[in-house]
Write a structure and sequence with these properties.
Low-confidence stretches of chain A: none
Largest sheet of chain A: 9 strands, antiparallel
Distance between the termini of chain A: 54 Å
Strand content of chain A: 35-45%
Oligomer: homotetramer
Order of helices and strands of chain A: EEHHEEEHEHEHHEE
Mean pLDDT of chain A: 96
Helix content of chain A: 10-25%
Number of helices of chain A: 6
Chain lengths: 262, 262, 262, 262
């Protein structure tokens, strides 16, 4: 049967990325403290295509992923998947992005009640032939923000709201990768208050007062997160987005920042 | 050219709804106080199909809508569109749902500054041959809610958040249809505070204190909205959903209720 | 500490549904053939609230769910969760909806290659005190549709596209619940062709020709699914939506139908 | 009343972007051939914040936008809005992104019937003080793709599907900006077939056969779009994403590419 994809192309255009998108597969993510969480990942998986070929072979992307489905996935496996793509698709470069919902256990501040909170996370890997993979960890941490201006100018009360901090982190290749649990705790320390799924009345009193005692603009959270990230061993590049879903507006307060560390 | 849709079907199944979905067209919505707002509507448009026919004629739905695109649309035009569908597609019943983003002008409570707020709205019409159309107006009103429990148990502060009230309203056929502007004002009166796009500092102080002075659970807002709706002249049926995007949780507080009025 | 929720309410409105929405938790779903798939479920969990009380107790919903998180969930557990809500929240009725992405293994028609396909699924339970739960299973099955009109009137080719069949099924309470895997296979038989994640060239030839040999309007798929569902033992109520993401339009062909069986 | 935002900050972090996000306002977009389309735009509007200040003034973003709401918006107005932000917020740089749904008229290939098709579009402007604005036009053009491999290896038929081409274009500052209508026509020429909202049977035959006669992989469409874009006068930078919503899979074929022109 003819292999149309393999036929010659004469347009002279080497395509930077070609592959599959919005494919869903289950994987296991290693939890801090042992054990795994199974996740339904959404993926984009591409390779570069030399100018000489008409097309890539889409089914091979699935064959490669199938070998890893329902298995643990982390930096090492991402690199192996990309290496397999470089080999089996004769490519000079390959990328893999996986997005998944992860759960972190939270302990209520007074009652000590335990509950799970969901975080949107991602792994992104990019690999050239014969080079180590560039790996980016993405974690979105939700939190409470309380407005310093509203608190200052009002006789009582202060507007506050759910917010989110979206991180993308790139570490040196020999750094031990940080756990999502630890990263979440790091970010939550810079919020007016962390979020919890389960709060009893004594906890609700605690987080209400804690947020009131710790008012922060979207700019404050962003700056304090930047300072916290700069201390992370091995971090070489990061971007941060903070967004407050303002309780007094139908739009959001937004701040973003990125840095490459020396 | 053969008309495959028009061929006989022998499975004996009269289909309740068949047509087009997720079609986008621009229309004009009449504003309170005169003038029109142009909107990009997303639509579902269906008819019933008798058991004798293999298929409906999808292009006729578009032809009917095209006659109304870039024109004002309200109850009268919805009814005319459905009547056209009944005639041109030989159907016993037809439905049309249009969803659009509408803008309402808000006046800041102290500074008097004006700004626009966006509301997700919908019209739904359902018509049998030789009967008046049943019409449902949908309006989603965003607002601020402040938690009575949090306020009561805390030394200072109270968690508050953006919330939304989703209404579906069905009026008697001879009722003059209410303006979205008036409905929005009606709902906002039952919130801890309305939302605004533009608030200067004196306004921010006002809405912060107003919300603190007016704490409401999701249940309170829902009940007060129910009481307010019961007074609307000509209203015969309604449903209400209230949802608070809790500032202390990563999930929402939710309440829903529906009534048929005597 | 005062229990504000528990205070008396004098508005005289019994709320039909109040609780939490958009909460995410991991559960296990039993697979056909043994074993479990872990899923990240999105949930809505509500109870009715008598007119005498100001509010429900939101944290108890989480406490109830926590007892079932990271455990298998099916009809029996749904019923137990609702029963717990009725008891612990003193409610007359309760509802629980969970949505999750499920994976079904598919075997390519010629090469026999195995791959996983993702389906959006849901469980919905509704329970009155001292009555059995009403349970609704939701499964969305993607498939290929090929247009009979396009095929008939064209010299060669025929437009085809990805489509989806959205089912909601309610069975008699003593019926053994059908597996998602079996339901998927039942629906796929009525499509122009099933979908697969992994197809080699010989498979691609097979599905292309199979779809061309089996042209179906959205009305055809819907009617054939209705006929297939009517044969399901114990099914007492169903709704079906079929939607084709038309390859020649930027909108969709749509059909819906529901039946209560004798 | 104290201006908390204006107070000194000692963390030493100049924030790259801070402002408002997900704000909705109506604007007018000039159509080719005269006249305007009113659109409901979704916007992100930011400035840089010097390290000396605690916060920016969020209400000023709204005040600036309000002067332009319900007015025409294009490159010139984007630049004026950004200039106003630089001045009123004392900023060194500012960005504005607006996204909106635009409608283009299509003429059916045989019947000549006219209908509107919706396109997701965006304007992005970025401005430093005392420098011209960098402007990026975004247009997403939907189209039909038909698979060359499927056609080649099958006895009859070929799988085809709805696809989309997502463009981001940056022109030299003195280039007359291209109309969305012309850009759409340029891209559609490289598809297996354009899409239409309204097709009569003679048109459906035409587009079915046209697509069959013009099979293209996602790689083919991308390469041909790249070649077409390279001919656009004044274009200095572009990115293209092509994505096929495969009719035989539940995932998409994807290709992306970007170039800076000499």
């Amino acid at each position: 049967m003819i292999d149309v994809q393999n036929s010659a192309d004469h347009r002279g255009i080497a395509i930077q990325n070609v592959g599959i998108n919005d494919i869903h597969l289950p994987f296991f993510i290693r939890k801090k403290g042992g054990g795994f969480l199974q996740v339904a990942a959404t993926m984009r998986f591409t390779v570069s295509l030399p100018k000489e070929y008409k097309g890539t072979h889409m089914s091979r992307f699935i064959e490669i992923l199938n070998d890893y489905a329902l298995q643990p996935i982390a930096e090492e496996e991402m690199s192996a998947i990309l290496e397999a793509a470089l080999m089996r698709l004769n490519a000079a470069s390959a990328t893999l992005k996986i997005k998944f919902k992860y759960f972190v256990e939270k302990v209520a501040p007074v009652s000590g009640k335990r509950s799970l909170i969901d975080l949107d996370c991602s792994f992104f890997g990019e690999k050239q032939a014969n080079a180590p993979m560039d790996f980016t960890l993405g974690v979105n941490v939700p939190f409470t923000s309380l407005c310093p201006c509203s608190r200052e100018i009002s006789e009582y009360g202060a507007h506050n709201q759910r917010s989110v901090c979206r991180l993308k982190l790139q570490f040196d290749n020999d750094t031990e990768c940080i756990y999502i649990e630890d990263l979440t705790a790091l970010i939550e320390k810079e919020a007016s208050s962390p979020l919890y799924s389960l709060l009893k009345r004594e906890d609700e009193k605690f987080v209400t007062e804690a947020a009131y005692n710790n008012p922060k603009f979207v700019e404050d959270v962003l700056r304090d997160v930047v300072i916290a990230l700069r201390t992370l061993p091995g971090l070489k590049k990061f971007s941060v987005v903070c967004e407050n879903f303002e309780s007094i507006h139908n739009h959001n307060a937004y701040a973003s920042h990125e840095e490459t560390l020396a």
